[in-house]
Amino acid sequence: MGTKSIKKNFLYNLVYQVLILILPIITTPYISRTLGAEGVGIYSFTISIVTYFTLFGSLGVAMYGQREIAYARENKTKRKRVFWEIVTFRFITMAISLVVFILTYASQDVYKEYYQILILYLLSFAFDISWFFQGMEEFKKTVTRNVIVRTLSVACIFIFVKSPADLNKYLLIYSLADLIGNISLWFYLPSYFKGTEIKYIHVKRHIVPIIMLFIPQIAVKIYGIVDKTMIGYIITDKSVLGNYEEAYKVINVLFTVVSSLGIVMMPRIASIFASGDKKKLNEYIVKSFRFMFFMAFPMMLGTTVVSKEFVPIFLGDGYPQAATIINILSPMILRCGITNVIGTQYLLPTKKQKEYTISILAGVISNVILNFCLIPPFGAIGAAIATTVSEIFVVATQMYYVRNEIPLVKAIKTGTKYAIASVVMLIACYIVGIFIKTGIASVIAKIVVGAIVYLIMLIVLGDKYVYEVRDIIKAKIKRK
Questions:
Q1: What secondary structure letter does DSSP report for 109?
Q2: Higher pLDDT, 225 or 13
Q3: Sign of the four-CA dihedral 414, 260, 241, 233
Q4: pLDDT score of 104 more than 50
Q5: Helix, strand, or coil here: 194?
Q6: Residue 137 and residue 5 in contact, taking contact as beta carbons nearer than 8 Å
Q7: pLDDT higher than threshold 50 for residue 15
Q8: What is the biggest distance separating any 2 CA atoms in the chain, rounded to whole angstroms?
């Protein structure tokens, strides 16, 4: 598969990754007002607890499975055997995790009713085979099914969630969307396995490599949930967690756009690594850095300049700290983009799980320590500072490990033009803010002016992406 297929798969994956976050974001103005900050906080806390069980039940299967399917893609028999070995292993581990969850939180906790509903959410992970299609570089199928299922779930939220008392309905819709979406992907499998027979499977052979990926996988997830869990346990007022949840959600959507190329590139780089083409592998890594910088710099700086006006319009009253938290978390867009390229796109596909694991653990340990120090006196703002600072440890560690393996200096230099253009964009947005101070008009004006200034600066600086788009537009005009 060539460059065109990478671009197509990137677009499909971008649609999917943004979809699973954008659709909840569409409902956020409604949910934030309907459930209130406390209801959103309870939702965030219960989901964070359940996520630990999904992690232990899933282990490192998703990323491992994607990589192994990519390795076996051209061998139908091997592909089918690998699939059923991994699926069998995941069913066993998820069953254990589900039983433990039912015997603990789902039967004894203060939020028992909500945890019982979330059993469906936990169960959905047992049926998740999206990793198979990602390994096959077939992103269209996952996108199509999930667009339908998740769009219907949004409609259900607006129809059935009417007051703070409907938090149980909101969790039910949230859980069923994942369960139905994951089960639906199984209907595509027969076409991939038709005419292929396997006589035996060896589940045990996957245990060690899966566990090797388990630690980095759980560490990555902890970044997204440990703050929420610790805020929920340390701070009694769940509205504080509600502020953090909504702020984190905004940053996470932007990061998803920046990191979408990573999931597409991982199976491709794994395949190139297996072929031994070091030069081509480095070319792809540099291109990934360039695209990441192209997206990350304007998003990171642009977020800080619109957050103050954006939050009250989007979330309504009751979220006074959200804008500040967004500003503190915004550098994560760039730092997580860097770790996505080095970690997800290079270290994991090239079987450097040990280095990847150490880098993630460095961030997690520092994050937990900082949380203990900063959450009690500063609440959600302290958690945001802890998360932002801890990511620096991950970036530094990963850069150290790859300093002699990839053209790191060359890759980082590709971001120079985007950094300059973004700073000029930021200045322009601040000037706009002087004349249009509040309301939706200010947000729209800053976004429009910022985008125009950013593109103009890239043209002035001679950036290749802008000229590629220009050539495509010219070609279409000529055809007409």
A1: S
A2: 225
A3: negative
A4: yes
A5: coil
A6: yes
A7: yes
A8: 73
Average pLDDT over residues 417-436: 94
The residue behind tokens 């002035």 is: 460
**Arithmetic mean of pLDDT, 441-464:** 92
**CA 375 – CA 355 distance, rounded (Å):** 30
Cβ(231)–Cβ(375) below 8 Å: yes
Rounded to 10°, the helix 207-234/353-378 angle is 10
| Residues 170, 175, 176, 177, Cα dihedral to 10° | 90
Residues 6+ apart with CB under 8 A from 340: 258, 259, 262, 292
With cut-offs at 50, 70 and 90, classify the pLDDT of residue 188.
confident
The pLDDT tens digits of the residues spanning 41-66 come to 999 999 999 989 988 888 768 778 88
* C-alpha to C-alpha distance for 306 and 442, rounded to whole angstroms: 8
Q: How confident is the model at residue 71 (pLDDT cuts 50, 70, 90)?
A: confident
Contact 281, 352 (CB under 8 A): no
| HEC sequence for 426-441 | HHHHHHHHHHCCCHHH
Angle at alpha carbon of residue 225, lines to 220 and 228, rounded to 5°? 155
Q: How far is CA 13 from CA 20, 154, 273, 368, in A?
A: 11, 20, 22, 31
The lowest-confidence range among 133-147, 230-244, 415-429, 451-465 is: 133-147
The Cα–Cα gap between 369 and 387 comes to 11
Number of H helices, E strands in the chain: 22, 0
Three-class secondary structure of residue 414 per DSSP? coil
Mean pLDDT on 284-310: 90
By C-alpha distance, which of 100, 117, 359, 387 is closest to 231?
Answer: 387
Q: Comparing C-alpha atoms, which of 9, 14, 11, 463 is closest to residue 255?
A: 14
pLDDT reported for residue 11 = 67
Q: How far is CA 229 from the centre of its chain?
A: 18
Going from the C-alpha of 333 to that of each of 101, 185, 255, 296, the distances in angstroms are 33, 31, 5, 6
How large a percentage of the chain has pLDDT more than 70? Answer: 86
Contact 458, 450 (CB under 8 A): no
User: Tell me, what amino acid is at 207?
Assistant: I
Neighbours of 436 (CB within 10 A): 15
**pLDDT bucket at 240, cuts 50 / 70 / 90:** very high
Tokens of 255: 């990061």
The residue behind tokens 């990555």 is 220
Query: Can you give the pTM of this predicted structure?
Result: 0.78
Q: For residues 292 and 341, is the Cβ–Cβ distance under 8 A?
A: yes
Taking the CA atoms of residue 215, residue 216, residue 218 and residue 222 in that order, the dihedral angle to the nearest 10 degrees is 130
* Amino acid (1-letter code) at residue 53: F
Tokens standing for residue 468: 């590629």
Give the list of residues 6+ apart from residue 48 with CB closer than 8 angstroms, or none: 225, 226, 228, 229, 232
d(CA 417, CA 415): 6
